[in-house]
Design brief:
By secondary structure, this protein is α/β, with parallel strands linked by helices. 25% of the residues lie in helices and 25% in strands. Bound molecules: NADP nicotinamide-adenine-dinucleotide phosphate.
Length: 336
């Protein structure tokens, strides 16, 4: 356990972005570490999760969470260590995860924290396979996608955090997995490291044509992380009663006006369904899912890949990396 310093470096929203968030969107400063009151505890935040959803939280639009207010610390899920406690249930030295924000110290209450067992995995893994990334892939694929052994599952952003886990789970339960990713190196990762059966490079290949070649019996489950043209291409290749899992639409997040699918009549023709979901709605089943994900990881059947950028000042560039596709696996910033 490291004793708290008196200063808390933090990233606050200075103004709302237009398109890609540049450095001027952020105000990075040092504030006093807050004093805790009875019922509270102080967490030293070690790592924060970089999530495409962060881009949406910057816009003043109705969503599943309110936008981050100008002047507030940027919202982020983190992992860290309790360094002072005036509450029951958590003691100094405990490792925890919660919505700490992009800062080095966070005041929390026990109800907002989940305990982390470091004997299961290193701390950053609780932001990837054993964190909301893994949980998103788990519930999105299994609950919404409902794949059966032998099904063909197609995943976009397949070299990314959620996509790489979704494809691996599809393989674990006996499906055929085809990934879509940007560039030859990511496509190599998708097949060689994450064990998909095939990969499509959407930057250099005709996605619709490749889906016809690689999915001769059509698509049973399409796990969509990107929206846009890739979603449209996948919709043309659905099998009857296919399930389209609407996990995210990262290709649209920097657009002022999002573009919806134009091939949606495939849902009617193929009697298919497209359903969105939010991992937050599964909180009462996180423990069950984390147990299964951890077991698969222990058995070597589920690989995690974390890309850690050092230093809280890297946050603005890390967000741009995510939105440009310069990450592979789970992007994390070490804020200590
Ligand atoms: N529903 C939920 O509860 C929930 C929870 C967490 C995340 N999500 C969603 O899951 C998706 C993946 O998130 P993640 O955390 O795993 O991020 P990630 O996949 O690790 O990183 C984002 C990836 O998206 C791809 N991408 C970026 N711009 C693109 C574009 N214009 N067209 C196509 N691909 C593009 C890039 O990969 P390439 O280089 O391969 O293009 C990039 O590496 C996001 O849409 C996110 O919003 C949903």
């Amino acid at each position: 356990m490291t004793a708290p310093t008196t200063r808390n470096r933090r990233v606050r929203l200075a103004k709302r972005p237009d398109g890609m968030p540049d450095d001027g969107v952020w105000d990075i400063d040092d504030a006093d570490v807050a004093d805790i009151e009875d019922g509270q505890l102080l967490v030293r935040v070690d790592y924060v999760s970089m999530d495409p959803a962060m881009r949406g939280w910057l816009d003043d639009k109705r969503s599943y969470l309110p936008p981050v207010a100008v002047g507030d610390v940027m919202r982020a899920i983190g992992v860290g260590e309790v360094v002072a406690s005036r509450s029951d249930g958590f003691a100094e030295g405990d490792h925890v995860t919660g919505a700490f924000g992009v800062q080095q110290y966070a005041v929390a209450t026990p109800a907002s924290l989940t305990r982390i067992d470091l004997s299961m995995a290193p701390l950053p893994v609780f932001l990837s396979v054993l964190g909301s990334t893994g949980l998103t892939a788990y519930f999105g694929l299994l609950d919404i996608g409902q794949p059966e052994p032998g099904d063909t599952v197609v995943v976009s952003a397949a070299a990314g955090a959620v996509g790489s886990v979704a494809g691996q789970i599809a393989k674990i339960i006996g499906c055929r997995a085809v990934g879509i990713a940007g560039g030859p190196e990511k496509c190599r990762l998708v097949v060689e490291e994450f064990g998909f059966d095939a990969a499509i490079d959407y930057r250099s290949e005709d996605v619709a044509q490749r889906l016809r070649e690689l999915c001769p019996e059509r698509i049973d489950v399409y796990f969509d992380n990107v929206g846009g043209d890739i979603l449209d291409a996948a919709l043309t290749r659905l099998d009857r009663h296919a399930r389209v899992v609407l996990c995210g639409a990262i290709s649209q997040y920097n657009q002022g006006r999002m573009r919806g699918p134009s091939n949606y009549m495939s849902l009617l023709v193929d009697r298919a369904r497209m359903e969105g979901f939010l991992v937050l709605d599964y909180a009462d089943r996180y423990a069950e899912a984390r147990g299964r994900l951890a077991a698969w990881r222990d058995q070597g059947r589920l690989r995690s890949r974390e890309q850690v950028l050092e230093g809280i000042d890297m946050f603005p560039e890390a967000l741009r990396m995510l939105l440009r596709g310069d990450n592979s696996g789970k992007l994390i910033v070490a804020v200590r």
